[in-house]
């Protein structure tokens, strides 16, 4: 009573072929084999492939100067290693919040068309590792 005859196994095989198709069975078996192999490696303490190291973060620009001009402030700074561009940010109050005014690949920028008053600037570097922290704040007052 508890045994399957050859006839029962042929019916099971026919049902499996109907549901999965003849081409699908090798794919299912391959996936099952990979799953078992992965489980065995995990249980044995096999090391997984190391993740790619993230790109190093760039440092904030240094040596920032702000030279006032007529209705403008000329900014310049030293290049940061690994930086592909720089984000120049401005605020009307010391400490921010700062608004992005330009993203440039150069190490200088002239902020033009400014009304009288004092402006506060910070610059961040952008590289493969992302954006750096903001630089030291500099002040510019157009004449």
What do these coordinates show?
The chain is α+β, with helices and mostly antiparallel strands and 143 residues long. The protein folds into two domains: 6-44; 62-140, Immunoglobulins (Immunoglobulin-like, Sandwich), CATH 2.60.40.10. It has helices at 6-20, 24-44, and strands spanning 62-69, 72-78, 83-91, 99-104, 108-112, 119-127, 130-131, 138-140. The chain is rod-shaped. The relative contact order is 0.19. The model has no long low-confidence stretch (mean pLDDT 85).
Q: Biggest β-sheet: count, sense, barrel?
A: 5 strands, antiparallel
Q: What is the CATH homology-level superfamily of the largest domain?
A: Immunoglobulins
CATH architecture of the largest domain: Sandwich
Please indicate the count of domains: 2
- In percent terms, what proportion of residues is strand? 25-35%
**Secondary structure category:** alpha+beta
Mean pLDDT: 85
* Poorly predicted segments: none
Q: Report the CATH C-level class of the largest domain.
A: Mainly Beta
Gyration radius (Cα, Å) is: 32 Å
């Amino acid at each position: 009573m508890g045994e399957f005859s050859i006839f029962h196994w042929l019916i099971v095989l026919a049902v499996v072929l109907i549901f999965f198709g003849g081409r699908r069975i090798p794919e299912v078996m391959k996936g099952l084999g990979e799953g078992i192999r992965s489980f065995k490696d995990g249980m044995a303490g096999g090391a997984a492939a190391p993740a790619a190291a993230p790109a190093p973060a760039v440092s904030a620009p240094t040596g920032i100067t702000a030279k006032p001009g007529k209705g403008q402030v000329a900014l310049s700074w030293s290049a940061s290693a690994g930086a592909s561009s720089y984000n120049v940010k401005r605020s009307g109050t010391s400490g921010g919040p700062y608004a992005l005014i330009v993203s440039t690949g150069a190490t200088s920028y002239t902020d033009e068309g400014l009304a009288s008053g004092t402006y506060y600037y910070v610059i961040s570097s952008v590289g493969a590792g992302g954006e750096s922290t903001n630089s030291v704040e500099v002040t510019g007052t157009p004449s």
